[in-house]
Here is the input.
Amino acid sequence: MNKKFKISSVKELDEVAKAIAKMIPSNKIFTLNGDLGSGKTTLIKQILEKFEIFDSSSPTFSIINNYMGGEVGEVLHIDGYRIEKEEEVENLGFIDYLKDEPLCFIEWPEKFLNFLPKKYVNISIIVEEQYRIITISI
Here is the structure.
C-alpha cells in the first residue's frame, strides 16, 4: 500500500502526521528517507505530538533518543546519519532496544535495514521547489 501527500507548508504536514499516527499501534517501526533538511525530524516531532510527547529533539549527536508516551509507551527516535557500518548498529544495542517492541522512528535507516523485522513502514520525503512529496509505503 502506498499513500502520497503533496504539501507546501509545515501546517499541511499535520495531515501527514495524523495519517501516520493512525497506523500506530498496528505498525511499530517507521523508516524515514529524504535528503538533509527535507523534514524528517519535523515530521517525527509532529507525529509524537499526537501522543502528547512535546519534548522531542533531533538525535543527530546522541543517535538514539528515548521517550515515554502514555498510550504508545516507549518511543525510540534514531538518527543513522553518522552510522557508517552495520557493526555500529550492533554496538548501539539496537537489537536489544527492539526486544520490548517500542514505537521506533529511524532517520537515515540504510545501516539498520538488516536488523529490522520484515514488517515496517517506509516514509520517503522528496523536496521539490515549492513543495514536498511524502510517500508512505507498507
Q: What stands out?
A: The helical segments are 10-22, 40-49, 86-91, 94-99.
